[in-house]
Automatic annotation (TrEMBL):
Subunit structure: Homodimer.
Name the record gives this protein: Protoporphyrinogen IX oxidase
Superkingdom, natural source: Bacteria
Homology family: Belongs to the HemJ family.
Membrane topology category: Multi-pass membrane protein
Annotated positions binding heme: 16, 97
Species: Pedobacter miscanthi
Amino acid sequence: MIETLLPYYQYFKAVHIVFVISWMAGLFYILSLFIYHTEANDKPEPEKSILQKQFVKMEATLWKIIATPAMIISVLAGASMLTLNQGLLQADWMLVKLAFVVGLLIYHFICQNIVKQLKNNQYKLTSFQLRLWRELATIFMIAIVFVVILKSAINWIYGLIGIMGVAMAIMIAVRLYKNYRKKRGE
């Protein structure tokens, strides 16, 4: 049965990859917009109001036209692949990947909430906190790619240690960047 559906599976796989890339691009970019939007609070008027109005527009457009549709198509294409090849659900690596995907979906909806908060002039996170938050998407992406590529060959303990190491390196880099910006007076 799977042999007759294999061409369809490959199309779903291609669509899945394309839209996962789009989804990740949307998540990375929306967080950059959040950071700049938050930093616009430090600008004098009328620059502050002009920037904030523009960021609200850009965030809404990015979220509604790119990030959310890409997330929906990614999930639908992935679900279609699992429907066509249900044996994947028996693989440990797929269960780990799906756990990371659930984490990424939660991350997506938290970002959606931040879009709404910023639209309503609610600034609950600093630009530094948003920079750290942005890097969480990077950690999810790295974890998912390594699990999918290495599959059952991965040693989960070493993989987890590696992901934690990458997370620590990213957080140190964000902290160093903050100090660099502080020294430059930004």
